Amino acid sequence: MPKPIRTILIIDDDEGMRDTLTAILRREYRVLRAPNGEAGLALLSRDAVDVVLLDVRMPGMSGFDVLKSIKETQRLVEVIMISAITDVETAVQAMKHGAYHYITKDFEYDAVLALVRNACERLDLNRKVLTLSAQVEDGASRPFIIGPSPAMREIVEVVRKVAGISATVLILGESGTGKELLARMVHRESDRSDAPFLPVNVAAIPSDLVESTLFGHERGAFTGAVRQLIGKFELASGGTLFLDEIGELKPDLQAKILRAIQESEIERVGGTHPIKVDIRLITATNIDLDRAVREGRFREDLYYRINVIPLRLPPLRDRIDDLPELITCFLRRYNAKFRKGILGIDDEASAVLKGYRWPGNIRELENLMERLVAVSSGDFITAGDLPYEYHLAPLVRADAVTEGLLDRACQTFERNFILKALEQAHWNVTATARNLGVPLSTMKFKIDRLEIKDLARKLRGL
Questions:
Q1: What average pLDDT does the chain have?
Q2: Mapped to the 3 state alphabet, what secondary structure does the chain carry?
Q3: Are 112 and 142 found together in one domain?
Q4: % of the chain exceeding 90 in pLDDT
Q5: Whole-prediction pTM value?
Q6: Domain that holds residue 207
């Protein structure tokens, strides 16, 4: 991706100096010129400028006044101060007020070019710092778990076909199905993988702040806007912007998103000039956008703009074949987090989880595994460790086989109760029988009937 041409603004009352600097810079940069501070600030308000070459002494506004105004309203613009005389105190004051550098008018041409290049590099670095601070690091290293289910294999195949093109992607699916992780996978597979990935959950932002968050605002644009804010569209430029829950956008913002997609430019709140952006847009929602369009809640033209590459993530209940791989991934993650060594889940617990409907999808599964790893002390998670609602899940399913469900539930409880009692007695069967108040022969009978002997190989006295 070619880098955009930088814009340099020269503010100097000396026309000869403006001509000289223009001749030096115009081969590499777009150059704007202003004869005084007032005209320079007017240009800054109308055009996107990267670096300003600013004379210290001018009629009207002084260079320091202009510098102060720029730093209050244009946070990322770098300013190089120029003076006709060598004055250490002036140079110190310039740096204190936020200038990038200070040079005298007897400069060498190559030195000016090098200084402007360095200022542009610093601008890139500052923008990168802002971008990194805006990214959500928690999800950056989390993989999108594919699993063996045919539905997920088909989605991954489509992702690998379209990741390299710049078409907009719309990810559909219930809440908790992993839409952001799929968006990150599209980004990683694209030619923008080295550039930023910025996720924005539109529904989580107060409605009166969504526009400012997405497009940024200028200082003084509204009450409380005490400084310039760079929006997510600008910060993601060159990379990927992920807008989650786009179906929650208000109609006026839908129109602005549409313009940003069509024109590849945005305008900050309170701004007076368009700003070019280069992003790959990925959107997601869990609402029925077709219905929202029919009901007039979502713009039809925006829907067609974002629905170029649709990807529909199935709910976990429809990709249950992926459950073992998901569980293994979450066990590994939370074993590391809690410094545990749980090896897996037993067959009975696995059967219970496969029979559950998972209304919260993968997010619910992850939360469950985090809880189980945190509180479990054995080598394996058993059916008795699962909350009771997972055992009762077949009762609310019309297609479930519930014959003998109560007996199975009672046996599960009894089996896990005895296992925990054995563990507390250091696997001494005689001590366990005494602690539970049952004859030794009864305890041995239950151990055989509930198939505990094969699982608890540490048992003594059998």
A1: 86
A2: CCCCCCEEEEECCCHHHHHHHHHHHCCCCEEEEECCHHHHHHHHHHCCCCEEEEECCCCCCCHHHHHHHHHHHCCCCEEEEEECCCCHHHHHHHHHCCCCEEEECCCCHHHHHHHHHHHHHHHHHHHHHHHHHHCCHHHHCCCCCCCCCHHHHHHHHHHHHHCCCCCCEEEECCCCCCHHHHHHHHHHHCCCCCCCEEEEEHHHCCHHHHHHHHHEECCCCCCCCCCCEECHHHHCCCCEEEEECHHHCCHHHHHHHHHHHHHCEECCECCCCCEECCCEEEEEECCCHHHHHHCCCCCHHHHHHHCCEEEECCCHHHCHHHHHHHHHHHHHHHHHHHCCCCCEECHHHHHHHHCCCCCCHHHHHHHHHHHHHHHCCCCEECHHHCCHHHHCHHHHCCCCCCCCHHHHHHHHHHHHHHHHHHHHCCCEHHHHHHHHCCCHHHHHHHHHHCCHHHHCCCCECC
A3: no
A4: 45
A5: 0.69
A6: 137-314
